[in-house]
Amino acid sequence: MDELTQRHNEKMKRIKAARDEMMKTKTEEKGLIMVHTGKGKGKSSAGFGMIMRCIAWGMPCAVVQFVKGNWETGEKKLLREKFTEKCRFFVSGEGFTWETQDRERDVAAARNGWEIAKQQILDPEIQLVLLDEINIALRYDYLDIDEVVDFLLTQKPHMTHVCLTGRNAKPELIEAADLVTEFELVKHPFRDGVKAQRGVEF
Amino acid sequence: MDELTQRHNEKMKRIKAARDEMMKTKTEEKGLIMVHTGKGKGKSSAGFGMIMRCIAWGMPCAVVQFVKGNWETGEKKLLREKFTEKCRFFVSGEGFTWETQDRERDVAAARNGWEIAKQQILDPEIQLVLLDEINIALRYDYLDIDEVVDFLLTQKPHMTHVCLTGRNAKPELIEAADLVTEFELVKHPFRDGVKAQRGVEF
């Protein structure tokens, strides 16, 4: 065995020992409040990746889309065509808020979405709820942030996971969350004139 | 209509006009080199979210997992049980590198994974290839970064998307990529003693 290999193997042994020790302290299971925010790509994709995991494990789950909706996406297509039994799929918005240009309609759609969201979260059968792009509705105050955070902290069943996506997550939500990932845009091909493409963006 | 609503609607009209103008410049379609890196959660989930979109649209795709493998994950289970026709799934590694503690075995596994990856990328039928956790193999120099970047830049078919995930993406890869998202860890429940849970982490 050469020296590089030997040094590497010893280093990995130390890492494994430290990791095993650390993992012993990770014993709790609980439903998480998760936030995917930031300008980078992947916030919704990562939410749908978890939905896929739930479907695989037979964990009933639900999606409420807040401001996407009037166009066909891969995630909607697949969930509606293949997995209606395993994942409930709701659309409350009619597009991004600059598409409707009608605040009252946006507010009504967001409130409707939030009512559905609460029902799904309270449903003891459902184990993960994805509130896709809810941060946009919160940012424009279509929904009251205090009401949403208060509901999540006081009424969400202990083992239910809720994932909230969208840019500009409010500080109150980040404070309340168990897991927060900021998706930082390092490079995006929109800047070079590349359009949104099937399989990648929708 | 009250003043808030009117101001909002006018603002959204301006946003929509600016957006429509911008979208006119987004005309190109091309296969992207995408990198998901950083310490935050969601890098692989977001990759699998795109796999789900490809499956929905009937775009044949492939996954090569570099350093996960010896345990069952939701993504592996679902793809192997339901979508073997639509998504090819390969595992090259036997766990994280600190699990094997054997550099030579890790190098052999990574090289094997890279050979499979090249075949999948070159296959004209395949439209998106997810190289999950390949950045770990690159970081420890199990694979040569110059070889990988050179292959992606010179041999990847023009319309094929490739997504490379894992922490510590090498600068050469970031330089070569079209789309890079840094997943920044703002909060993670591991810190509070919560263990990895089904549906969320695997």
UniProtKB/TrEMBL annotation, chains A, B:
Pathway recorded for this protein: Cofactor biosynthesis; adenosylcobalamin biosynthesis; adenosylcobalamin from cob(II)yrinate a,c-diamide: step 2/7
Pfam families: CobA_CobO_BtuR (PF02572)
Keywords: ATP-binding, Cobalamin biosynthesis, Coiled coil, Cytoplasm, Nucleotide-binding, Porphyrin biosynthesis, Transferase
Domain of life, per lineage: Bacteria
Gene Ontology molecular-function annotations: ATP binding; corrinoid adenosyltransferase activity
GO terms for biological process, alphabetical: cobalamin biosynthetic process; porphyrin-containing compound biosynthetic process
UniProt cross-references to InterPro entries, sorted A to Z: CblAdoTrfase_CobA (IPR003724), P-loop_NTPase (IPR027417)
Top-level class of the enzyme under EC nomenclature: transferase
SUPFAM superfamilies: P-loop containing nucleoside triphosphate hydrolases
Assigned EC number: 2.5.1.17
Catalytic activity, reaction form: 2 cob(II)alamin + reduced [electron-transfer flavoprotein] + 2 ATP = 2 adenosylcob(III)alamin + 2 triphosphate + oxidized [electron-transfer flavoprotein] + 3 H(+); 2 cob(II)yrinate a,c diamide + reduced [electron-transfer flavoprotein] + 2 ATP = 2 adenosylcob(III)yrinate a,c-diamide + 2 triphosphate + oxidized [electron-transfer flavoprotein] + 3 H(+)
Chief localization: cytoplasm
Ranges in a coiled coil: 1-28
Annotated Gene Ontology cellular component terms: cytoplasm
Compartments reported by the entry: Cytoplasm
Family indicated by similarity: Belongs to the Cob(I)alamin adenosyltransferase family.
Physiological role: Required for both de novo synthesis of the corrin ring for the assimilation of exogenous corrinoids. Participates in the adenosylation of a variety of incomplete and complete corrinoids.
Name under which the protein is recorded: Corrinoid adenosyltransferase
Source organism (scientific name): Palleronia caenipelagi
Lineage of the organism: Bacteria, Pseudomonadati, Pseudomonadota, Alphaproteobacteria, Rhodobacterales
Recorded name of the encoding gene: cobO
